[in-house]
Amino acid sequence: MSLAAVGAGLAVIGAGLGIGRIGGSAMDAIARQPEAYSKIQLAMIISAALIEGAALFAIVVAMIKG
Amino acid sequence: MLAGSVPATSAAISEDEVKSEKTEKEFDAAPFIMEHVADSHEWHILTKKDGTDVAVYLPVIIYDRESGIHLFSSRKIAHGHSYRGFTIAHEGKYAGKIVRVDEHGHHDGSKPPLDFSITKAIFGMIVASIILLWLMIALARSYRKTGISAPKGLQGVLEPVILFIRDDIAIPNIGDHRYGKFMPYLLTVFFFILINNLLGLIPIFPFGANVTGNVNVTFVLALFTFIITQFSANKTHWRHVFAAPGVPFWLLPIMIPIEIIGLFSKPFALMIRLFANITAGHIIVLSLVTLIFIFKSVLVAPVSIFFVLFMDCIELLVAFLQAYVFTLLSALFIGMATAEPEHH
Questions:
Q1: pLDDT exceeds 50 at position B176
Q2: With contact defined as beta carbons under 8 Å apart, do B241 and B259 qualify?
Q3: A12 at the B interface (CB within 8 A)?
């Protein structure tokens, strides 16, 4: 169980870094082009969902093998 | 320890106390959460103080190789009872499955019978399908009555969603003149996932089954996308798999296996993504609820409920997002498989 928790934690670090980068870049992009706000936001949410999916793969493995 | 320090006259009461304290101490969140997330034959609603369960017992339909088809209520095999030589295994290789037992109530080691029961997830799907049918038939009828006009009522809610799927998912990914054939599938899969995600968030009886968080359901959905993609694929798609243009021939022994794995890994990722996102959401909400019982304090309850509400709002976003992502990626895969080479 504890090893699974470590695995989940590592997955969260990766996903956090990834989503953080997307959020930061989206903020930069919106600051540069405020008129493209809605398009950037949509692309940001999609990429965040995809990264979250990758992190959840790790969570599933941690759950099964934990 | 406690039992040793009390007088013998109140031994019976203290024994009860010890028992209740023991059960409270041993509250383990993981099995509680897993029970709610997993599929089951009965729909447990609550356990009364005297230990009796309030539950909806769903029908069991099994096919045994020796004794044929059996149909009975899951009430008969609940709580470790066996009926017609069947019970639900609680441990071992087939834990959670219906297995055949001998006269002593022990699993006789045979393979479990084929299980076609109406389980929680299937019941949830039936409820969702009825709601979908009602919504879509009402929508179609209202269009037949009014024709193409300014949308009102139900049309106003669903028309933008359907147009969004056509204009922002199907046309950009599949192409202007080929998208029509795939619209029925994309719309069906979008609304099916969406309605099941949303119903999964409602914690009251006919709703709340973890349908899209069940890996079997998402497997079949991903299988549909896989089959549709491969059967609508054109020559260019297969040439890219088996003889990618511009790749030196000595690389092909490496490239072909990678491309073939790629064909399967895409729908596999679809399956895991939906399953993991929805299950993870449910687990987080349930974990926050169990905090109250882990700390055994009413004071934790407001904090816990606040976080549950917050998570539910995020889950609302995730419900739409995952339905959208599944549909988008399905359209993308279909578009990639049906794309014509560009002529210059």
A1: yes
A2: yes
A3: no
- The count of domains in chain A is 1
**Which of A1, A50, A59 is opposite residue B280, by nearest beta carbon?**
A59
* Mean pLDDT value of segment B263-290: 89
Query: What is the reported pLDDT for B344?
Result: 58
Task: Look at residue A26 in the predicted model and tell me its pLDDT.
Answer: 93
Examine the pLDDT at B76 and tell me if it is beyond 80. no
* Stretch B306-316: mean pLDDT: 92
Domain region containing A24: 2-65
Q: Are B211 and B200 in contact (CB under 8 A)?
A: yes
Residues in A touching B30 (Cβ below 8 Å): 1
A56/B321 touch (CB, cutoff 8 Å), yes or no: no
- Any idea what the CATH number is for the domain that residue A11 is in? 1.20.20.10
Tell me what the mean pLDDT of segment B223-252 comes to.
87
B93 in Cβ contact with B111 (< 8 Å): no
Q: Report yes or no: A4 at the B interface, CB cutoff 8 Å.
A: no
What lies within 8 Å, CB to CB, of B88 at 6+ separation is B41, B77, B78, B80, B96, B97, B98, B99
Give the pairing of strands B114-115 and B98-100: unpaired
